[in-house]
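During the reporting period, our protein records have gained a structure token line. One record among many is quoted in full directly below:
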Amino acid sequence: MTRFAALLLYLSAAAIGRLPWPWLRALGDAIAALWRRRDARESRVALRNLEIAYPELLPSQRIVLRDAILRTTARQALETLRFWTRPHAQNLALLRERDGVDAFDAAIAAGKGVIVAAPHYGNWELLNQWLAWRTPLAILYRPPESAVGEAFLRRVRADQGDRVTQIRAEGPGIRALFKLLKAGGVVGILPDQQPKAGDGVFAPFFGRPALTMTLLNRLAERSGAAVLFGYCERIGQGPEFALRFEPASDALAAPDAERAATALNADVERIARRDPAQYQWTYKRYTLQPAAPGETNPYRDLEWNR
């Protein structure tokens, strides 16, 4: 039953993905407008995050930015359905610019392993497809709560055959990552997800403490692998992207976990500030807070309408 339900999801995604690009764009804008009118969770969370991250903006300026974020978020979801269900060669043809690829190739050639930190910026699924086209790749992922959702993700990310290994963010999977990096392999990690309590440290992110993963730091420190930030940034007005790689701060491999987490968040923040509308501000990044006066869940008063 799980496989059948995942197949139905895939067929639905494929049907949406076959829509012409202008239709997908219009549909995404309609979804964003509906979120605004209904004061949906995405709208409220994005606005609260902007209040935290951009306190210097006027309320009216944050509203304008929130609306742009909702449009980008909806369009990104629909374009990802297309990327998941269309030939990858067609998807990669949308990459109009490539920056830092030489640094990525040099890191692979060094033979010490490569960690690609891919923030929730632009379209990270297109980045995954480019990486898998370039080299065998292991993707660390947090399994969805739904078995159907996980089966669907495994199906849409398996089109590259044995070039992509999907590894659950659990004990055995983490050990497999260390072995892969020691052998000179390439690992992709989303560095800006809030980990479980006890699996991270608090470090500033846009001026507020955010529980931040220590896994990337441990992998880099113990394996000696190179760390690069990678993302596919939207450019222009049409479905066009720029692939970019940037070196991470040396402090990401520091023995001190808090120092490394601070450097990690600073690098992610720098990328997010390139175009705030392309960052995933609909995610509750600050739910867990330090046990200190005044540090409480900033989304608590938004829970009335999940």
In short: The radius of gyration is 19 Å.
